[in-house]
Specification:
six-stranded parallel β-sheet, single chain, alpha/beta
């Protein structure tokens, strides 16, 4: 059974919802299972700590979760056109895996949500790619053969799945956004499966 890590940070729940749809896409592929994990928030107070297990949602990720996965879906809300600090903080702690080449050759994809339609979805997705490329991961996007990519009036990019949450963060995932999340998860799992079979 291949294990695909779906790692995300979600402030208002939208990225978490996307993670669940991506997980469904992953698990639509035979012998593939999704492992949902999140990162703790970053505090400006030096001695602030988080409980070992969050009050709600997915458990916190460990470096071992990342090291042992067969593929990675990485998600973050848009923060000024960039990934959120908690995601960057976790990635900054992965030097040991980088030195060991633990992620080389594994497939990865990215996903995001923003409160405004032009709030930096694509730059946020692109901001998550350099660390993955430094780790030697193989990037998977969404091809235009997914017709929803051409027809969406909300989120969706070839760089990864995205969601437009609205100024009040109340917009639910559109049908197109949900299908694109599932398609991305399925494509990631299929790629991981092919890569595993080629070894």
């Amino acid at each position: 059974m291949l294990e695909i890590l779906v790692l995300y940070y979600s402030r208002h729940g939208h990225v978490a919802q996307m993670a669940q749809k991506i997980a469904r896409g992953i698990e639509s592929v035979d012998n593939c299972q999704a492992k949902l994990r999140t990162v703790p928030p970053v505090s400006p107070v030096c001695d602030a700590t988080e409980p070992a297990i969050p009050d709600k949602g997915a458990p916190y990720v460990t470096l071992e979760d990342l090291q042992n996965c067969d593929g990675l879906a990485l998600g973050s809300p848009c923060h000024f056109g960039n990934m959120a600090a908690p995601v960057k903080y976790f990635l900054d702690q992965t030097s040991r895996l980088w030195l060991a080449g633990s992620l080389v050759g594994k497939p990865a994809c990215v996903f995001t949500a923003s409160s405004s339609l032009h709030g930096g979805q694509e730059t946020t997705l692109l901001s998550m790619l350099p660390p993955l490329l430094h780790h030697g991961m193989l990037i998977v996007g969404i091809p235009y053969t997914e017709t929803d990519l051409s027809n969406t009036r909300s989120g969706g990019t070839p760089y990864g799945a995205s969601h437009f949450a609205g100024g009040n963060s109340q917009a639910i995932l559109s049908d197109e956004e949900q299908r694109l999340c599932r398609a991305l998860g399925k494509r990631l799992a299929e790629t991981a499966k092919r890569l595993k079979q080629s070894l």
